[in-house]
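Reply to dn_fold:

You asked what the input looked like. This is it:
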Amino acid sequence: MNRLAVAIVVVFCGALTANARLQEVFTWNQVDFEWPSAAAREAAIQTGSFVPENQMPLGIEVWKDRLFVTLPRWRRGSPATLATISLNGASHNQPLRPYPSWAMNREGGPCDGLTGIFRVQIDHACGRLWVLDAGEVDVAEGGVQQCPPKLLAFDLNTDQVVVRHVLPEENVRQGSLFSNLAVDTRNGRCEDTHVYMADAWRFGIVVYSASSNSSWRVEHNYMQSDPLACRYNTSGVDFRWHDGVFGFGLAPVVNNDRTLYFTPMSGTRAFAVPTSALRNETTVDDSSFTVLPARGGGVDAQWHAGATAMSSSGLMFYNLVTRDAVACWNSRLPYLPNLQGEVARDPVTLNFPNDVKVDEFNNVWVLSNRLPRYLFSSLDLNDVNIRIFAAHESTAVAGTPCDPNYHPQSNDFVTAPCVY
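and this is what came back:
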């Protein structure tokens, strides 16, 4: 029985509290790698190509018995930006294996390798891992654009690159940071895949078409950050970020179209647009974009949502990074504050839940990593700092308004956001 199956059994057999909905599966005090030898590791430390305390995972994905982990190059001494662990491996401090190889991850290597990756997504119907490489290094020190941003796809059966698309200059702005993506494949038509890529720092979405191997940029005011939501406070760390469009939730197909829900990281609202509008390379009608009610209110409100994922049954899961929580919404109901559910909240174990994914079996995966402490303070390396959680979506939403068996009440349709 694999580790996720064990986790789900434990959750179903235990008391169902808010924090018990997610089962802790993997933990690290500090990540390390599966080195060819102890001598190779020591040599990397001596040359500065590996600085252990500079490693910080950010994104995750799951394919069969492999869990993929992204490690943006926050600071120098980061030997890999994409790696895997085994779902059947050690639950604590399991070493990471660079993917697809050490050579392709080499720091300072050629631009046909992997430079700086924030998020990846698996196209389960076609067995491909889509990788959005921002091309950015030293992100915590102000950032250096070492290589042009590019989109790659790996065939997960061979671990070979099958798509390589360098974003054209007209799709990139000075200071762009491509940090997230959503993959849209329908009816197993792998040749007609579209990928939506978020430029969080310069407020745009770049759309890639596999059939034409081309891309184009879409911009809208809704993709910008909200100046009233740029202040963050978590675990006593106070800072300001101005990240715009970030989280993507891609709804199931309805009437031959899909809705893309997106959230600016520094904001309190989600927005929606039909993907048919984004797929139109020649023109995008501004009226296609819809603003949804605020999740929460108040000046400097701490309702920041970054990573978002939608299950095949239409349940959306998203992180609330400054509330140390994971939330949900059933897309078959109106997007209203009282119809949002809280899956889990914990100021210790869920401190800064940074990524959320839903796999092909509708299991929800969450990574928390105390990122603000890493960036602006320091981590206690004697403590667990990085955690990965999992639960089936039915367990994750049980007892919340996201539960498919939930019957909305009249006060659920109040549109005023919560303010606290």
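The two ends are 43 Å apart (CA to CA).
Hope that clears it up.
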